[in-house]
Amino acid sequence: MSAPDVPKPADASKPRVFFAAALAPPLRDDISGLARRVARQCSGRPVPGDNLHLTLAFIGAIERSRLPAVLAAGSAVRAGATTIDLDRLGGFRRAAVAWVGPSAPVPALDALAADVLRTLGEANIGCDARAFHPHVTIARHCRAMPEAGPAGPWRWRIGEIVLFESPAGTGRSRYRALATWPLGVPGATCRTPQSMPGARR
Ligand code: 2AM
Question: Which of 53, 54, 84, 196 would suit a FRET pair with 27, their CA atoms being 20 to 30 Å apart?
Answer without folding.
Answer: 196
